[in-house]
Design a protein that fits this description.
Elements: E1 12-23, E2 29-46, E3 54-55, E4 58-66, E5 76-79, E6 82-90, E7 98-106
Antiparallel strand pairs: 1-2, 1-5, 2-4, 3-4, 4-7, 5-6, 6-7
Length: about 110
């Protein structure tokens, strides 16, 4: 019997933004995030509650994404009008069709 891939649970969509280095008016480098991947299937998971899942006052989420998603640390995830900084990317040790991105919310 074949197991059903958990990717059918990825029923929401996110945009992944990748940082690029640019120079500001003073000649100093700074990062600017630009769309890298759009309409990526995802399942966001709030860690704790909106009030209990905070790290330094910032809400933390784990985003489950397809295994082949091109995502790395320092990328950002835009979801439902909010922006999240990718802290760590993990894949369970057992066979899986998803990876997980641990994030914290970014406030403009």
């Amino acid at each position: 019997m074949t197991s059903r891939s958990p990717t059918h649970l990825l029923n929401q969509r996110v945009t992944i933004l990748r940082p690029t280095s640019q120079t500001n008016d003073f000649g100093l480098p700074h990062l600017v995030w630009q769309d890298h991947l759009q309409n990526v299937p995802a399942l966001p998971e709030l860690l704790g509650s909106e009030y209990g899942a905070s790290r330094d006052g910032k809400v933390q989420y784990k985003f489950h994404l397809p295994l082949e998603t091109d995502i790395r640390q320092l990328d950002r995830i835009a979801h439902d009008g909010r922006l999240f900084q990718v802290l760590v990317i993990t894949n369970q040790d057992r066979p899986s069709h998803v990876l997980s991105a641990m994030t914290t919310e970014v406030h403009p």
